[in-house]
Write a structure and sequence with these properties.
The protein is of the alpha+beta class and about 220 residues long. Helix content is about 45%, strand content about 10%.
């Protein structure tokens, strides 16, 4: 069994962070293909089997465009930061037709900052309302999965949202605007031949939260 990713991935991303411009990237695009893009597509392809065992409703899509792999190019249209490239590699495993804001699974690879995650990040108000209603309506189920929450939420409300009781058992959870869980990996773990199994185990551990949030939004899991 060979590793999908090697230390070359992290060396390339570190160099890209220091040389984040179009000319440098074009000159080193063959390195990006060899150590990042192609290995990531192989990883996504091979993760389809383990993913189906976790949830048959999430998709591992190895297409280069509109698939599971995020583009390396940053969207700078509405940003003051005009650096053209992301300095990490990221993949999402979502419900078909849903974007990164849906409660699927996520993999982030960056030098010294690798992790798997699942949850809802910056959901729209109607989505957040459905989750809050589910927390109140299915309190027993929520009690069993809320221990997985470990995201910091700087945007947490100071008061309970309108229409929800101030004395509810999970009032602090009802104040959350982002809710999710993450499991960190070392660079060495990512470069190990066992990383597929390591990532799949992390996804299984996070899956009860993904299942609850999916059910709150009427999505199968």
């Amino acid at each position: 069994m060979s590793a999908y990713f090697t230390p070359d991935l992290f060396r390339f991303l570190a160099r890209l962070k220091r040389n984040n411009d179009r000319d440098w990237f074009i000159a080193h695009k063959d390195q990006y293909e060899a150590c990042a893009h192609q290995p990531a597509l192989r990883f996504i392809t091979d993760f389809a089997g383990p993913l189906h065992q976790i949830s048959p409703f999430l998709v591992a899509d190895p297409r280069t465009l509109r698939g599971s792999l995020f583009r390396i190019y940053r969207d700078t249209r509405f940003s003051a930061d005009k650096r053209p490239y992301k300095t990490h590699l990221a993949m999402r495993f979502s419900h078909r037709g849903k974007d990164v804001h849906s409660p699927g699974l996520y993999l982030h690879l960056e030098p010294g900052g690798c992790f798997a995650a699942s949850g809802l990040w910056h959901p729209e108000p109607p989505t957040l309302l459905k989750v809050r209603n589910a927390i109140v309506t299915h309190a027993q189920e929520w009690r069993a999965v809320r221990k997985l929450l470990n995201w910091d939420d700087a945007g947490k409300l100071s008061r309970p949202p309108r229409g929800f009781p101030c004395d509810h058992e999970f009032v602090e959870d009802l104040k959350l605007r982002d809710m999710g869980t993450a499991i960190e990996f070392t660079n060495a773990q990512v470069c190990s031949p066992r990383f597929m199994a390591t990532f799949a185990a992390a996804c299984r551990k996070m899956s009860p939260l993904a299942a609850f949030l999916s059910g709150a939004l009427g999505l199968p899991f």
